Amino acid sequence: MKIKHSMIILLTLLLLVGCGQKPTDTVADPNNGEPKEEVRDRTEEVIPPAATDPDEIFMQNPGSLMEGEVDFNQAELRKKLEEMPEGLSNEEILDHLVYYLAQDYQSVYQELQAFDPTNQPNVETPDGEIKRPELEQVNVFVLLDASGSMAAQVPGGVMMDLAKKAIHNFTRDLPEDAHASLYAYGHKGSNQAKDKKISCESIEEVYELSSYNESRFNQALDQIGPTGWTPLAAAIEETTKAVKETDENTRNIVYVVSDGEETCGGDPVQAAKELSETGAQTVINILGFNVDKQTQKQLLEMAKASNGSYKDVLSGSDLDSYLKAEQRRIEREWDMWRIKSTQEVDASWASNTQRMNKLVYRLNPPYGLLGLVKEERKRLLQAADTLNEMGKVEDIIDLRSIIHKRGDKLENRALNFERTISKRLEEERSKAKLDIEEKSNEKKDN
Fold first, then answer.
1. What is the rounded distance in angstroms from the CA atom of residue 231 to the CA atom of residue 186?
2. Which CATH number fits domain 135-340: 3.60.10.10, 3.30.110.10, 3.40.50.410, 3.40.1050.10?
3. Mind listing the pLDDT tens digit for each residue in 46-96?
4. pTM for this structure?
């Protein structure tokens, strides 16, 4: 009888394990049967498909084995290659190699994206007047998901802790003239069904839009914990109200950090679209923190509807890397405004042209886009040859061709940056000189 009883228990356990739920944003609460948001462990290594669009590649996360701009852990790479299964297609092999060895293009790419080719003169005319460009105000809004699922572990620690650390580092180094705002959503109640209404209505600007004060901002940030549900649409709608209060000379940059899709019945895609249509200068950046495919789809739709950008981040270091690149991009925009007020037209044109050439062509540290492409291509080809020596590649010629085609596409996109910016630089140079000439002729006629 004891044996029979043990067999029944064993079969029951096996059935329970076999019927385990797939990761979703809501699961049944074992205590009362009510649904609540699940805290998921997503530390298992998953090899995502390698991006194929050049702009998506330039925004990719650096390879998991990269240890700097071009350095990587060679011993660990050898181990990973040995562990790779045989019989993979060349496309699947490339997915693995990119995951391990992808170049970090973000900083250079985003600086080129923000490149300001205008050439405003700051030359004193005979009547003592100086034409100066008007400086714009920059507002930075950070929307932080405080749903219960942000308590999950990812490489590096707990998602909420990593997100808060990255946001602190990001806002701390914003330009001194920029204003900051921090919204928390889903941070009250709990992720149980009985508290859903409270949680879904908890959208709060914990740091009101104002000049950045590190102490007050950290106090506001520290009080946020992974608590409830995900009222993503409502959080964006609250931000829209704030953006509508700004004028046309204000640039509003919105960062949405979320690890899950809307769970409060709102329409975040429509909300993002309405935010982008406020009439103010508004840029929306959506960061999917270790999201599943369903969530990624919704966040991508939000970015598309708002003409914004979407970025996958898989770990705390990815989020920190992205936000640091954003810091440099915002700083560069402000630097360019200041450059306009201190340089003459030709000096500004020459300086911009030289800087653009370095960002595109430089083949040694600090690398330009073409230099980074060259280094990544070299790493991928070497890894492919190593796999071939291990007998894990069926057609090395085809694999090398795929890698070369990837590099060619990136080189063409980099060169397109150069052509486009060079054309704009020359156009703006001519326009600025024409403005000076017209001003001079105006005074002569008087």
1. 6
2. 3.40.50.410
3. 888 899 999 889 988 899 999 988 899 999 999 999 999 999 999 999 999
4. 0.58
